[in-house]
Amino acid sequence: EIVLTQSPDTLSVSPGERATLSCRASQGVGSNFAWYQQRPGQAPRLLIYGASTRATDIPATFSGSGSGTEFTLTISSLQSEDFALYYCQQYHNWPWTFGQGTKVEIK
Amino acid sequence: QLQLQESGPRLVKPSETLSLTCTISGGSISSSSFYWGWIRQSPGKGLEWIGNMYHRGSTNYNPSLKSRVAIFADASQKQFSLRLTSVTAADTAVYYCARPSAYGDFVSDWGQGLLVTVSS
What we know:
The complex is a heterodimer. Chain A is mainly β. Chain A has strands at 4-7, 10-13, 19-25, 33-38, 45-49, 53-54, 62-67, 70-75, 85-90, 97-98, 102-106. Chain A has no helices and eleven strands. In chain A, strands 2, 4, 5, 6, 9, 10 and 11 form a seven-stranded mixed beta sheet that branches. A four-stranded antiparallel beta sheet of chain A has the order 1-3-8-7, with no helix packed on it. In chain A, a hairpin with a 6-residue loop joins β9 and β10 (97-98). Chain A is globular, with a radius of gyration of 13 Å. In chain B, β5 and β6 (59-61) form a beta hairpin. The N and C termini of chain B lie far apart (39 Å). At the A-B interface, β5 and β10 of A face β5 and β10 of B.
């Protein structure tokens, strides 16, 4: 199974600043890669698929990049509602797997 | 607008069988454009994709759970179910039903999730 390792575990950022989250895959996954946001008590919400395509209704402040084994999610200017947990997912090889998550907290 | 809702017992005893149902509103299992899945989230293992059911009833399961899991559709085509046998405390988790996107194996629609605790 492909293991996804996210870094850092926690990211402390001030509102309005940029946040950069990383995810590394244990083997190449092409662009079969997604990012999700999860707020407390809610199900994850799809942000990015195909490594860089924003999902429906996701603001342009969210962007994804990377391919192969290294991926990045960038939030260009953090709003209050963006402080949450973020997960990466690969869908290149079954079973589809998720990273352990990065918590973005207010600095 | 698709809506998914999980239901079932919130407390299951060790060694017994966990059975959950997902009720679909605004869609149908019979659509060939989509498949349906179960995902769980626990503090210990994070998010884990359990398995999928396809419109003709075929399935695939996470190898880590394959010997204990079954996913199947209800005759109404508006529900599908998860059955997990011989549960232990490690199966305590929030269980989500999900519909991956027609464009790839990522989840565009999630249920709200149901916390199931395995305890005597």
